[in-house]
Amino acid sequence: MDFQLSEEQLMVRQTAREFAEKEIKPQAAEFDATGEFPVEIIKKLASLNFLGITIPEEYEGGGLDTISYAMVIEEISRACASTGVVLSVNNSLVCEPILTYGTDFQKKKYLSDLASGKKLGCFALTEPEAGSDASNLKTTAVLKGDHYVLNGNKLFITNGRVAEVALVFAMTDKSLGYKGISIFVIERGFPGYSVGKVQQKLGINASGQCELYFEDCLVPKENLLGEEGGGFKIALATLDGGRIGIAAQAVGIAQACLDECLKYSKERVQFGQPIAKFQAIQWMLADMSTEIEAARLLTYRAAFLKDKGERYSAQASMAKLFASETAMKATTKGIQIHGGYGYMKEYPMERFFRDAKVTEIYEGTNEIQRIVIASSILK
After folding, report:
1. Same domain, 114 and 57
2. Alpha helix stretches (DSSP H) within 65-190
3. pLDDT given at position 2
4. Cα separation, 350 vs 343, whole angstroms
5. What is the percentage of the chain residues whose pLDDT exceeds 70?
6. Residue 135: its pLDDT value, please?
7. Is 215 a known active-site residue?
8. How far is residue 119 from each of residues 94, 124, 160, 165, 310, measured CA to CA in Å?
9. Domain shared by 19 and 109, yes or no
């Protein structure tokens, strides 16, 4: 068992860390306060090949492994969780399924632009009545001649505000239940496609979540991704990979919290000494550090298995479950360590706390992760 990172992986992590510290971190609070989508930051990240990290170079991707991907998402999220999830979605929920299931036509037309950052993508599965029960879709797609006609709406769609390409799930045969779900590659300019309101949230405010509407939206039949009725299987497989990204995002948030707590506890003096001298504070810091390292290793383990082509669904769920709960525990303790200052917007701790919560919810709630894990161990 080798825990040593390769020189290439170390270089990728260092590049991501330096960029995040210099370019993203100084603007993170402003992104959060205004909800402004980090357009210029995304363009710069694209120049580093971070929009398609694991996509082969022939499609203008980075050609890197999944561990490198996890490290990039962690480092970017350590500076700004909104930017981290923008990257995660484009990489794992958009580029990966097109690479895996797309036709040569679809790869040529869409994948290179998405992996290079010329265009940004979104993953449109969730609906008002289809959250954890992803099979309960109301959006429909009916084949008429050379086009499918889509009707329905989506919500909570990360990147949706600016995405030029959307992977959209719809029912092509309601009588088959989840086996009647299909997935389509839809361009922003297709007739009948419209972007709804940007949704106001507790955290990750700059990630462009919004509603999408499809009203007699015309989609060429060659834009069907995979086989008709194969959308649910594609969704499950894609979300497995996406959970590695969310686990890495949660690790990044938790690490940013620990960084601030270490700094603050050495500077804050009470009862004549830095609060880092008090055992109560030391124990909180020790727990945070231990749990963060465990979450990171679970994330790397899932990434390692994915790269080896082995089953990793349960491991991705374990990583996402543990890392997200670690982020919530760390940020809760972080506010406590900072006391009243932790509750103030002048300090980043309350932003970390707000950003951490959603990692327990999106790309499968933690209750769903426990179901996935239990199903794996009860076979």
Report:
1. yes
2. 66-79, 81-88, 96-101, 104-106, 112-116
3. 82
4. 6
5. 100
6. 85
7. no
8. 11, 16, 12, 7, 31
9. yes
Does the pLDDT at position 1 exceed 80? no
CA 328 centroid distance within chain? 16
By residue range, what is the domain housing residue 38?
7-120
- Residue of 75, 127, 291, 363 with catalytic role: 363
| 330 residue type, one letter | A
Report d(CA 170, CA 150) in Å as an integer.
8
Picking from 90, 120, 150, the residue at the C-terminal end of a domain is 120
The pLDDT tens digits for 301-348 are 999 999 999 999 999 999 999 999 999 999 999 999 999 999 999 999
Would you say residue 191 lies in a domain? yes
> In angstroms, rounded to a whole number, what is the distance separating the alpha carbons of residues 355 and 359?
8
**For the chain, what is the mean pLDDT?**
97
Residue 1 domain flag: no
Q: Tell me which of 231, 248, 282 is where a domain ends.
A: 231
Distance of CA 264 to the CA centre of its chain: 29
Give the Cβ contact number of residue 93 at 10 Å. Answer: 24
Provide the domain count of the chain: 3
